Amino acid sequence: MSKKIHTEAVDYLFEAILSLKNKEECYTFFEDVCTVNEILSLSQRFEVAKMLREKKTYLEISEKTGASTATISRVNRSLNYGNDGYEMVFERINKKEPEEV
């Protein structure tokens, strides 16, 4: 875990996020906390990570998401050398999906 972001204020923010019960509450909260562009940037990075895991090329990813090669490279670095946060979340989402079908 990165000590750079580990502060009381970040802990409090994460507690707020963990208190959200569904997607609608997430929309309500994040629309107040973030700008539209910040939310779209986060979702773009998450989509880039998903496509990188699917072995898509930078060109395919850029064309579909509009992400720059710098953003794709940054996400790729996090996937390969980060804290495995993306992997943890993707595993949980994948376990959840079959139940929802």
Report the CATH superfamily of the largest domain: TrpR-like
CATH class category name of the largest domain: Mainly Alpha
Rounded to the nearest angstrom, the distance between the terminal CA atoms is 34 Å
Query: What is the CATH-assigned architecture of the largest domain?
Result: Orthogonal Bundle
Protein name: Trp operon repressor family
InterPro entries: Trp_repress (IPR000831), Trp_repressor/repl_initiator (IPR010921), TrpR-like_sf (IPR038116), YecD_YerC (IPR013368)
Organism: Lactonifactor longoviformis DSM 17459
GO molecular function: DNA-binding transcription factor activity; sequence-specific DNA binding
Short description:
With 101 residues, the chain is mostly helical. 76% of the residues lie in helices and 0% in strands. It is globular.
Overview of this protein structure:
With 101 residues, the chain is mainly alpha-helical. It has two domains: 1-33, no CATH class; 36-100, TrpR-like (Trp Operon Repressor, Chain A), CATH 1.10.1270. Helices cover 76% and strands 0% of the residues. It is built from six helices and no strands. The chain has helices at 8-18, 23-33, 36-53, 58-65, 69-81, 85-100. Helix 3 (36-53) runs antiparallel to helix 4. It is globular. This is Trp operon repressor family.
Descriptive keywords:
mainly alpha, globular, 101 residues, 76% helix, single chain, 2 domains, Trp Operon Repressor, Chain A
SSE topology sketch:
Elements: H1 8-18, H2 23-33, H3 36-53, H4 58-65, H5 69-81, H6 85-100
Helix pairs in contact: 3-4, 3-5
Protein name: Trp operon repressor family
GO molecular function, one term: DNA-binding transcription factor activity
Pfam families: Trp_repressor
